[in-house]
Prior knowledge:
Elements (H helix, E strand, L loop, with lengths): L25 H16 L4 E3 L9 E4 L11 E11 L3 E8 L2 E11 L2 E6 L5 E6 L1 H14 L10 H19 L1
Antiparallel strand pairs: 1-2, 2-3, 3-6, 4-5, 6-7
This protein binds ligand K1U and zinc ion.
Amino acid sequence: MAIRDILVIPDKTLRLVSRKVETIDDGLRKLVEDMFETMYDAPGIGLAAIQIGEPVRVVTMDLAKKDEEKQPRVFINPEIVWSSEEKGVHEEGCLSIPEYYEEVERPAQVKVKYLDLAGKEHAEEADGLFATCIQHEIDHLNGVLFIDHLSKLKRDRVIKKYTKIAKHAAE
Ligand code: K1U
Ligand code: ZN
């Protein structure tokens, strides 16, 4: 297992559309282990493989509260197959945009279809933080960031700030 570097904006890799997983093999299982180690270390409640530079449709998540036992979950090739008309607003953060939090409006409930690590298909309804997090992570698989749901003014400000930070770090 390894803690991997998390890509930060404006890294262009974050804008790639990830490819579907065709085979669940040792390579994929190792990637999932690295994702959990990286996500727990960050710490975060979710991670998409592209955030560690792997453009494959894999998401890890753990929504357990501090005092609860770990609840690690893996979503392979996750797809939203239904979204509610009703919208909900939640504050979101992103490990690829460290220390920036903003409220985002999204469908309040969704139904997500995915494969587990055994290749078994599941379909599950999500609401609350689960709905927010799975939509945020599936966005990552499509090269979309939560700042894309904000006004252009807010988005441009954030991109400018992190571009400046990246330039100084490269000097
Ligand atoms: O995908 C990511 O960048 C991870 C992100 C997931 C997420 C958080 C909130 C709303 C939508 C999606 C994070 O985990 S940011 C860190 C965070 O929210 C957190 C970290 C430690 C404890 C509790 C929350
Ligand atoms: Zn994110």
